[in-house]
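Notes from the 1:1 (GR / supervisor)

We went over the backlog. Supervisor wanted to see one worked example end to end before approving the batch request, so GR pasted a single chain during the call. The sequence is below; no edits were made to it. Supervisor asked that the structure be written out right there so they could see what the output format looks like.
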Amino acid sequence: SAEAKHAQDHAYLRALILRYLEMESQHEALFPAIAMYFKFTEAEVDRLAKKQEEHAFETSVLGRTLSVGS
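Structure output shown during the call:
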């Protein structure tokens, strides 16, 4: 039934988001499933990938060192 499908989808999404939030090291591996579930556009995926790269640089030793010198 449609209600059972909705419950199954909700349970899948809930588990996916919980795992994503719990395990930062798994973000890259889990992102494709999240993007597919929400039907992100190519532009949205590109935008998120760029933000992830910026965040990775900002939290790296080099990024933190350069921001201290600014």
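Supervisor's comment: The mean pLDDT is 85.
Batch request approved.
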